[in-house]
Description:
The complex is a heterotrimer of chains A (656), B (202) and C (316).
Chain A: H1 20-34, H2 39-45, H3 49-78, H4 88-123, H5 131-153, H6 178-206, H7 219-252, H8 265-299, H9 306-320, H10 335-347, H11 349-365, H12 372-394, H13 397-403, H14 407-437, H15 443-469, H16 486-516, E1 561-566, E2 574-578, E3 585-590, H17 597-614, H18 617-638, E4 644-648, E5 651-655
Antiparallel strand pairs in A: 2-3, 4-5
Chain B: E1 3-9, H1 23-50, H2 67-78, H3 80-91, H4 95-121, H5 131-163, H6 169-201
Chain C: H1 10-43, H2 58-94, E1 101-108, E2 111-116, E3 125-128, E4 130-134, E5 139-145, E6 150-152, E7 161-163, E8 169-173, E9 179-184, E10 197-203, H3 205-216, H4 225-236, E11 266-267, E12 272-273, H5 276-284, H6 286-289, H7 302-314
Parallel strand pairs in C: 1-5, 4-10
Antiparallel strand pairs in C: 1-2, 2-3, 5-8, 6-7, 9-10, 11-12
Helix pairs in contact in C: 1-2, 4-7, 5-7
Amino acid sequence: MTAPPPHDHTGLPADMTLTDDAVAREAAQLDSIWRDGRGFWGWLTTVDHKSIGKRYIITAFLMFIAGGIEAAMMRTQLARPENTLLGPDRYNQIFTTHGTTMMFLFAVPIMTAMGLYFVPLMIGARNVAFPRLNAFGYWTYFVGVVFLYVSLFANTGPDAGWFSYVPLAGPQYSPGHRVDVWAQLVTYTEIAALCAAVNIIVTTFKMRAPGMSLNRIPLFVWAQLVVSFMIVFAMPAVATGSTLMLAADRAVNTQWFNPAEGGDALLWQHIFWFFGHPEVYIIFLPALGFVTPIVETFSRRPVFGYTALVMANITTAFFAFGLWVHHMFATPVPELGQSLFTAASMLIAIPTGVQIFCWIATLWLGRPELRTAMLFVLGFIFTFVNGGITGVMLASVAFDKQAHDTFFVVAHLHYVLLGGGVMPLFGAFYFWFPKIVGRMLDETIGKIHFWLFLIGVNLTFFPMHILGLEGMPRRVYTYLAATGWGPLNLVATAGAYIIALSVIAFLYNVLKSWRGGAPAGPNPWNSSGLEWAIPSPPPSYTFLHVPVVHSRHPLWEPAVDMPVVTGLRTDRREVLLTTAFDARPDSRHHAPGPSIWPLYLALCMGVMWIGSIFSPYFVLIATGLSAIGLVGWALQSTSTPGTERVATGDAVVELA
Amino acid sequence: MKALRPVSDVGGLPSVVFGQRSLMWWGTLGFMVIEGWTTALIFASYFYVRQNFEAWPPLQTPLPSLTIPTINLALMLASFIPAALAARAGKALDRAGVRRWLTVMSVLVVPTVVLRWWDLWALNVRWDTNAYGTAVWLLVGFHASLLLFDVGDTVGLTLFYWLKPMPAKSFSDASDNSMYWYFTVALWAAIYLIVYVGPRIF
Amino acid sequence: MHSLFDPSSPQARAVAGLWWWMLAVGGTVWLIVIVAMLWAAITRRQRRLSSDLVRLDDTAHVRTERVVTIASGITVAILIAFLAYDFTVGHALAQHPLRALTIDVTGHQWWWQVLYEDPDPSRQLVTANEIHVPVGVPIQFKLRAADVIHSFWAPSLNGKKDLIPGYTTTLWFQADTAGRYRGQCAEFCGLQHAKMAFYIVAEPKPKFAAWLAAASQAPASPSDPHLVYGQRVFLSAGCATCHTIAGTQARATVGPDLTHLGSRETLAAGTLANTRENLLRWIVDPGLWKPGVHMPAVPLSPPQQEALADYLESMK
């Protein structure tokens, strides 16, 4: 532990604590400034990261249910050979929508949504750096959700697979608007992800509590930070590929993917997987960020190997950008290139392995309590390590040429995403639900949920390994009885229903506990992070006073009181900015209040993307409409009454 | 909950700061990285499809013309001077200076958007002729959207400075606006060199 | 046979060997990790939620650090061994044979065109969906796509290779034992991706040579009036706008070559067993068996249908 930061005790008596009376007065004042507006309008205009984070999480989870219903339909179709429940046309729309929903509308958004809700809480900030951008990101995502599902019910659901390979997805082989829906939706949701990423990066760099230097940032926040950087470099690739190339090829006859005019079908695959592989880690790393605090709390000790875990996060992010060709081993990519990608794909197992070892070591050195959240962490390791090992197998070019595009890969990716993403996510729900809602989830139903989910996942996806090696390709709407794939498919379908049961148990638990759960109190698990220093659910202003941090585990400090900063204005939304590396207090920032413009601009973007499918003129119309919104947005930022202290050169000047 | 013990008072810290001390600077940087990276990916695609051609530009496709793009680049580079002066006036908290230099800057940058239309036709190829045409149109066209946004931002800020009493915070906005403009011009210089000049050299 | 578990070529056997080795090593690793985790969770378990923290013990910490370092080292060692093994297998598979029988395969939505290369273009044999190959001879495939991306995969013989518009890709193997090996398109290619299978029929060399000779002959013109009628239906009802039958005016290449259709074991790229009844059903309404198939249901009277089916089946 290092000495307290030098700014401590500036002109304040060393033993002063705030009286209850002063606390109550300030709380009321802050709440009147920070709370959302009233009624439906208030709901539409909120820029509070907690309100937005909560609706983001709920929307994304509804998408998990939608994607799950699609999965159940597919499994029902495949339960026996030559089933006729879903024809190929319907099946193709459903499997494409399943993949698109799960990747673009569930997994990435829910992981960033957890970050948008919790990062400010964990670093002692009252909001994210760009609250209106945050609202804009959510509304953009929301328009995307509505767009995809309206299209699906209008029989215009995308049907070329969640990676829409050209030329199948090109103008010639996919006439109509199904693939346009996919291409625009993807760009749309990537814009939402980019907004979230910039927000999380700047929030983490500039808004940490005083004393929270880089080596004290919670691992949850580290994971979000690293992933946000990955989003910044991965998402532009898919946005370029899907809107600027694929949609343009389809709408205005550009020639990116037409070999007859010098275009190239493999260019799409490179662009897509340059995004698509990091995407997996964009889902997986935040989930690992959930695991650490759960393991720490329920092992009753700090995690083993903090530095190793941070380094593992960063190296994983770097390697993740060097793996994309392993999705293309069956294409004519030069052999030497393939070998390099094989090596990189195996290397990434090392940081992942180190993280698993560190958590197991924490269990060994601690006194684990098997609460539901912890069970999900154990289930995560149980399931994910399997997926990791098959991942290393798939790095082999020779083996991949057999397993690629078969049910083996389907098994692998679901072990990784359900094991590595959804298991920790459920753990996180049990762990942080009390913070968001103020009530505990039921532990008994939680355990039923856990066991059903663990059994269901393994029963569904384990047989798929065998099916793949027995020659069953992925994305087939049916298969002949003579292939002999029937029995294992039936087992997989049974497993899928068990997963459905487990999710129903979870939903019941949430609905029951939302109103009737045991009150949680600020810190039900005796955990260590700053988010547990405030009431549950958090008040509108989150922190009454910005806390000062002296270690990685502020609430596990022996001190009897909580050091805080005073002096932020209470008559307007003001937040404290600190320096990027050592988090010394640097300036006060006036944060924007409620605004309708984020929603307005998101709708303009909707007009642009959706309209452009039908006519390029919508781009012009939407640009004009957006200009109005941007002016409104800018006018709101320029109207800030009161005097400011302006830092110019060495001096600070008071200015109206 | 533990009792709160104040250890530091931040009331004396500034509430308007410049450069990397301000949030807006970081946000602008973030979007610069995203836009720059997108351009880099389009460049990569440009070179990728180039492998499919024996000649570049392809046979029977003329070279791009240089006149208009060169004039446009010169105009953008000239606008660096008022942009730098506006940023400096912002840091000196000189309202009249910011307004003056933003106005000069607007006068110089608005024509660049108009010229951009002829930049596109100076490519001498249509976007749907072949993959070469597609690639160059996307590079120039994507930059056009950045240009439009940035010029709109500059003109809007200038108008605000004329029409409204601007708060102290806007001094910081003026300097961030200049930073974003340098970046947009730098991207154009790269596109100019690779798309318009490049095929003449190799 | 259609499975990585039944390898019938040196190529597939090498990959199967790699697979079993990876399964053994990977399975062991998984088991050790899970046992270590469960052991800790069970033996060190504490039943009650407590607010006390575990007192940190430096000796235990140093010991654990050593164990974690060793475990990470073992992970690296396993990965290096794996990489070495994989590169050996990959290198062996990448050695293309000097002399091989070359077969061009073109993927269509949703069937396979097969062409046996010959220096003399007039002796090139074209067929569809069933690929006869000699046992013990390297077979070199040149793979192309006519429309969208497909992937050529017969798991008992070798891994897959994509067929990509604008590219020609290659794949080779050498079948060890005679047999019928099933293969299937592995890259999603639209509505009937599921029903785009093919068969590789590996035969001893003499038998293959006999097949090749027979298949290269145009079928004899029918003499039976019923079959003559069938041929006339074929040529006049529109079938010939898409299909070829050697020795007739039907020379179109939109759909599969139907010369010697009667000798094939399946219809419609492995969708139906090749019987007269199935063929009849197929002609009446192809979309019933393969919804979305590009072949239209041509309106024919029942006698025309029967004659057509008999004619096609007669070409053995």
